[in-house]
Design a protein that fits this description.
Elements (H helix, E strand, L loop, with lengths): L9 H14 L3 H49 L1
């Protein structure tokens, strides 16, 4: 486990303290869980961006393959 020094905006800290108190959850655990969720969200965003770029790159090839299949169907 890594030790980290962190500066939070006062309002975020206050809200976090209020929530962790109500949940009876350690601040450290709460922040770990929050970062874990935020990491998942950003991984999905990065994957979506990557897939969009790759989709553009393969779209012309896909159209060529589709045209070839259509030619084969027309011959039969």
């Amino acid at each position: 486990m890594k030790t980290l020094s962190l500066k939070l905006d006062d309002d975020i800290f206050d809200e976090t303290e209020e929530i962790t108190s109500k949940l009876k959850l350690a601040r450290n655990r709460y922040i770990n869980e929050a970062l874990s969720v935020y990491n998942l969200i950003n991984k999905r965003r990065l994957l979506k961006t990557q897939l969009s770029k790759e989709s553009v790159l393969t779209s012309s090839d896909s159209m060529e393959v589709l045209l070839e299949f259509e030619k084969l169907l027309d011959e039969n």
